[in-house]
């Protein structure tokens, strides 16, 4: 099963995307900020990351680095 990590600080966007992806057969993992996103990435090594660039504390560009 392909996996997708959704990193977004907006709970509605996170829930909507993970719910949709799960219904389409993906393993969807969510994180609410950059630090959690990095941790979840290291734990799950997803096939795809959907990343909000404007995150509090550690922004999306720092996550990419």
UniProtKB/TrEMBL annotation:
Name of this protein: Response regulatory domain-containing protein
Pfam families: Response_reg (PF00072)
SUPFAM superfamilies attached to this UniProt entry: CheY-like
Gene Ontology BP terms: phosphorelay signal transduction system
Sorted UniProt keywords: Phosphoprotein
Domain Response regulatory residues, every copy: 3-65
Flavoprotein among keywords: no
């Amino acid at each position: 099963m392909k996996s997708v990590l959704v990193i977004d600080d907006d709970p509605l966007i996170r829930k909507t995307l993970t719910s949709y992806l799960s219904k389409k057969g993906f393993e969807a993992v969510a994180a609410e900020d950059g630090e959690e996103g990095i941790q979840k990435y290291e734990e799950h090594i997803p096939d795809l990351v959907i990343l909000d660039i404007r995150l509090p504390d550690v922004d999306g560009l720092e996550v990419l680095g």
